[in-house]
Each structure stands twice: as structure tokens, then as C-alpha cells.
Amino acid sequence: MTTLDRLLPALRVLGFLGSLAIVTAVAVQAGGELDPAELTAWPLALALVLVGIWWLLLAWGWGVLLTGTAQRADIGTWCKTQALRYLPGGFWAPAARVVVVRGRMFDRLATVAAENVIALCAALALGGVALAVSGRIWWLPVALVIALPTAASRLLASRTRVAPERVTPAAAGYALGFAAYAGAAVLVQASVSGFHDSAAVAGAALVAWGVGLVVVIAPGGVGVREVAYVGLLGATFGHSELAAGALALRVITIIAELVILVAVARPVANPAPG
Hints:
disordered N terminus, 72% helix, single chain, mainly alpha, disordered C terminus, 10 helices
């Protein structure tokens, strides 16, 4: 047994505790900026469930891209590394996954890039449809981006694990996940201002999520997503209502992430031999 093998259990524990500390700190900070008196409680409970589904489907999609079948270890790795997105720079989560993925460097980079591209296309495609339904018909062509990951994967299949047979189910899972995220956004905004123009709220939340992913200098998209969300809905809702809704969605997201991190990514002791 090598020195690394002996240290690996301790490194797993330290990685889990570090991820837990990062997410907890962000949750405390975001929660301190939110006034619970502004919110109706019952939509938030439902939103928390939907956000949890979204988060697990993102982790599941990563596992499918990585191995073809999502294993608990793959989902746990994604959850732990995802917590690093809150560190300054905003690129530590994908960088960490490049390190932990096995294979040639080009294959590692392609896998991590594919994960982010699929998530971005799913969010923008569903967001475009929702905004079109709300009356902003010019957003409808954005829905076509959902086909881009599978089309691009045909060019990479011979050199990487990013092949259509992995990308297509991962994209379907991501689309379902972002549908759940859109529902959560509608419920969270309803907790502040009631159910009003729900399709626009869903679309704005999805497009804002995509904007936050692209602007990598903002750790975890903090601030950027909220600004984009308020900007897209500024003609429909009051600024204070939108700000409260955006912040509440951020808090709900972090709480769901924290619960799943504890449940899925905690280190599991290896069973004693025979």
C-alpha cells in the first residue's frame, strides 16, 4: 500500500469537511440578507424539493457523462467539487473535476466542458421557451440550442468519452432538472409577490442561471444571476419584490445543496475484509 493509499481516507474526509464549510458559510451569509417576514412559507417548502431534484439530476448527468452510469461516488464527487465554485475566481469547481477525472488530459477537459455546455444549453433552451410562452416570442429560437451538445459530441466521440450515447441521456436529465428549477423559481417568487406571469419568471430564472454560468469571474454566479433576473423581469414586478425573490432562490438553492452534500457526498468507510 502506497503512502497516497494510506492518506486517501483522510483526504476524503478533509475534502468533504472543506466543501461543507464553504457551502455553510455562503448559506449563513445569504440567509442573513433575507427578511423572512417578506415570504410566504409553503411555496418555499415545495421549491426546496424541486431544487433538490434539480441538483441531483445535475450530479446524475455528470455521472452519466463520466462512466455511462451514474454511481454514488461520481455523484458525491460532483457535489463536493461543486462547492468550490464559491471560491474567488469562480473556476475551481470545473478545475477540480478535471483533476479527479481519469484519462488523458484532452478527455478530461472535454468531459468537464461538455457538462457545462449541456447545462447551459438546457437552461437557455427551456428559458427561451418559457419567455416565448410569456409573450416574448423572439426568445423562441433560443430553444434550438438544446440540440447542440449531441451534435458536437459526434465530433468528439472517437477521441473522448463524450459520445452521443452519453450526451443524449445526460442532456435529457439536465432538461428535466432545469424544468424542476424553473418550477422552484416560480414558487419562490410567488412566496414574495404571489403567482403572476409565471412563465416569465421561469424563463428569467433559467436565462439568469445561464448568464451566471458564463460569467465565470463571479463565484457561483453570485450577484450576476440576481442582476440578470431583475433585469429580465423589471417591467413586470417591483424591484424590491424581484430582489427578494432572487435572494430567496439563492438561499433555497444553497440549503438544498447542503442537505444533498451531507447525504450523498459524506465519506463512507470501506467495509472490513471478510
